[in-house]
Automatic annotation (TrEMBL):
The lineage of its organism: Bacteria, Bacillati, Actinomycetota, Actinomycetes, Micromonosporales. Pfam families: Uma2. The keyword Nuclease applies. Keywords: Endonuclease, Hydrolase, Nuclease. Residues 16-155 form the Putative restriction endonuclease domain. GO terms for molecular function: endonuclease activity. This is Uma2 family endonuclease.
Length: 173
C-alpha cells in the first residue's frame, strides 16, 4: 500500500498541525515527538475484540469511552490509545484529539508490533501528562479469548500497578 499525505506543515508537526492531517481509511496515525507514526489498523481479531470488550465494559459503568482517538500529551505528541475514557461526554464529535486533562483513563492493548511503545514509551507520556489511570492489556497465556489487565494508578509522576486481573473477571464484576 502506498500512502500519500499532504501535510499541513513541515515535520516535526505540532499537535495543532497534526489535527489537520487527513484521515486515511485503514491506517492509524499518531504523533510522536512531532513525527508521524503510521500503522495498519489492528490486524489481529483478538486485539479488536478485546478493545471493544473493554470499551463496552466502561460504557456499562456509565462512562464515556471511545476507541482510537488522539490524546494530546505534549505539544508534539498525540498517541491514540486503544480505549480512552473521558471525565464527561464529549460534545464536539468532529474533533480528532483531546487534551489529556479531559481523560481519566487510557487503555493500550498490546500487539506484537507495539510491545515496546505500549509497555514503555506510552505509559511514560501518559503519566507525564497527568492521566490518572492506565491499563495495559496483554494476551492471556492460557486462555486465548481472555486477556490479562494490569491496572495502573498515577502515583506522583509515575504509574504503579494497582491490580492485575483477567478481562473476564472485570466483566463479571
Amino acid at each position: 500500500m502506498e500512502l500519500k499525505l499532504e501535510l499541513p506543515g513541515a515535520l516535526p508537526l505540532t499537535a495543532e498541525e497534526f489535527a489537520a492531517v487527513p484521515v486515511v481509511e485503514g491506517v492509524r496515525m499518531e504523533l510522536e515527538e512531532g513525527n508521524l507514526v503510521v500503522m495498519a489498523s489492528a490486524q489481529m481479531m483478538w486485539h479488536t475484540m478485546t478493545a471493544r470488550r473493554i470499551q463496552d465494559w466502561f460504557r456499562a459503568q456509565g462512562l464515556f469511552a471511545e476507541r482510537e482517538v488522539g490524546v494530546v500529551v505534549g505539544p508534539r505528541s498525540v498517541p491514540a490509545p486503544d480505549v480512552t475514557v473521558f471525565y464527561k461526554p464529549v460534545s464536539d464529535l468532529r474533533r480528532s484529539q483531546f487534551p489529556a486533562a479531559d481523560v481519566r483513563c487510557v487503555v493500550e492493548v498490546v500487539s506484537p508490533e507495539s510491545v515496546s511503545r505500549d509497555r514503555v514509551s506510552k505509559p511514560l507520556k501518559y503519566a507525564a501528562a497527568g492521566i490518572p489511570e492506565f491499563w495495559l492489556v496483554e494476551e492471556h497465556p492460557d486462555a486465548p479469548a481472555d486477556a490479562i489487565v494490569k491496572q495502573h494508578r498515577l502515583a506522583g509522576s509515575a504509574y504503579t500497578v494497582a491490580r492485575t486481573v483477567t478481562l473476564a473477571e472485570i466483566e463479571a464484576s
